[in-house]
Design brief:
Helix 11 (308-321) runs parallel beside helix 12 (348-371). The protein has a 5-stranded mixed β-barrel. Strands 1-2-3-4 form a 4-stranded parallel sheet, sandwiched between helices. Strands 5-8-11 form a 3-stranded parallel sheet, covered by helices on one side. It starts with a helix and ends with a strand. The chain contains 12 helices and 19 strands. By secondary structure, it is of the alpha/beta class. The structure holds 5'-deoxyadenosine and iron/sulfur cluster.
Length: 435
């Protein structure tokens, strides 16, 4: 979602005459788009600001902007004002569309000789802003927001506080955007939302449109050949959606289904609203609908009160599901969340030791799963040449596996067939199969 916000900001700036620079030192305007989900990102953010201070002093024309969900937290903005008052523009996720105005106001104030930093945070989103431009990272694939915010309040998570309550875009607007993307050469869309399963849009006639209904509509658009989505909450995944994996060829056979933990006790204290058995049942149904489906997940290690026994249940679950890949996170205490107040926080060394065991288990399975692709021919949407070697290209399979392959010609943006020669832990390697 942050990546897409960055694409939108780049798009807005391009419309008023700016262009993207590859290297930070070449830019006249720097925008730091922050994430508040885990503490590491906070630390990196303030570290980056610290490094920029001297450059800002030396270069009076430089404009430093900071934005993203960290700015929706008052204590962060207070810290910026106290410790980094030289930051020129601060704005939040709810008023991202205001960037060109804020930039203009700042330039005006500089021209008038009164250096006036801009601070503008909106506590609430004022409806949904449609029609914002986007400078896509890839020509052939696009990220498309279908909803914003989250109502789930998992006890560890800051998102409901920074991104607000769920708001769904209208299906009409989403389809209009995707039709325009298809005209512009996009072949694959990734539908974005904190919990896409609870998408609830409304047609102009007042009729409701749920997530499966939205996918069916998108699948009708000529030119769009692949549809993906992220992220889907296990408690809300509908049988109708699962059936689409069987019936809708454009829906990629791939799902990211964050489990977070394998122990019912932990899941309960996380406020996840499902049990381990309910989760495993969803996995069973998904594999029944699409035997080849690739499955990834998110797991948090060291949630307050997690015992060795609880952790073993997470390991067991990983071995039972056999994920294609998984994002693993050390639990990170977030200010204002219920879990911050839980008094049985886990010691760092225990957390790290469990984390290492989990990553080992996940990597072993990923490597085995990827090895099984050796010899297979996969249809790959080519994203572009590798920076290191001009004859190596990268693309993704329907199951979202990253494939690096050699080819004499540039097929960026096209579908090609690649024979997989090597399955590594995090990617596949192969050779182009000439048509
Ligand atoms: N600590 C660790 N991981 C977290 N996530 C969200 N909040 C936290 C936290 N406080 C992880 C969850 C989520 C992913 C996007 O980030 O696994 O699915
Ligand atoms: Fe956070 Fe839970 Fe909402 Fe995901 S579903 S954004 S983890 S509160």
């Amino acid at each position: 979602m942050n990546e897409h916000d960055s694409e939108i900001m780049a798009g807005m700036l391009e419309e008023i005459g700016y262009e993207r620079k590859e290297r930070r030192q070449d830019a006249e305007v720097l925008i730091i788009n922050t994430c508040s989900v885990r503490e590491n990102a906070d630390k990196r953010f303030f570290g980056t600001l610290g490094q920029l201070k001297h450059r800002h002093e030396d270069d009076p024309d430089l404009i430093v902007c900071v934005c993203g969900c960290m700015m929706q937290q008052k204590h962060v903005v207070d810290t910026i004002d106290q410790k980094y008052p030289w930051v020129d523009i601060v704005f939040g996720t709810n008023n991202m569309h205001r960037l060109p105005h804020l930039l203009n106001d700042l330039l005006q104030s500089r021209e008038n000789g009164e250096e006036k930093p801009e601070r503008e945070i909106w506590d609430k989103a004022e409806g949904i802003i449609e029609g914002l431009p986007s400078e896509r990272l890839f020509r052939c694939k696009a990220l498309v927001n279908i909803m914003y915010g989250c109502n789930n309040f998992c006890t560890y998570c800051i998102v409901p506080y920074t991104r607000g309550r769920e708001r769904s875009r209208s299906p009409e607007e989403i389809l209009k955007e995707i039709c325009a993307l298809a005209e512009d050469g996009v072949r694959e869309v990734m539908l974005l939302g904190q919990n896409v399963n609870s998408y609830s849009g409304e047609w102009p006639c007042g009729r409701k449109c749920d997530f499966a209904g939205l996918i069916r509509e998108i699948a009708e658009i000529d030119g769009i050949e692949r549809i993906r989505f992220m992220t889907s909450h296990p408690k809300d995944i509908s049988d109708d959606l699962i059936s689409l994996f069987r019936t809708c060829p454009k829906l990629c056979k791939n799902i990211h289904l964050p489990v977070q933990a394998g122990s019912d006790d932990v899941l309960k204290r996380m406020n996840r609203h499902y049990t381990r058995d309910m989760y495993l049942e969803e996995i069973r149904k998904l594999r029944e609908a699409a035997p080849d489906i690739t499955i990834s997940t998110d797991i948090i290690v060291g949630f307050p009160g997690e015992t060795e026994e609880d952790f073993q249940k997470t390991l067991d679950l990983v071995n039972e599901v056999r994920y294609d890949s998984a994002f693993t996170f050390l639990y990170s205490k977030r200010r204002g969340t219920p879990a911050e107040k839980y008094d049985d926080q886990i010691a760092d060394e225990v957390m790290h030791e469990r984390f290492d065991r989990l990553v080992d288990a996940i990597d072993t399975i990923s490597a085995e799963k990827n090895k099984a692709y050796e010899g297979r021919v996969e249809r790959v949407l080519v994203e572009g040449p590798s920076k290191r070697d001009k004859r190596t290209y990268a693309g993704r399979t329907d199951g979202f596996k990253l494939v690096n392959f050699t080819a004499d010609e540039d097929h960026t943006g096209e579908f090609v067939n690649v024979r997989i020669t090597k399955g590594r832990t995090f990617s596949l390697e192969g050779d182009l199969v000439e048509e």
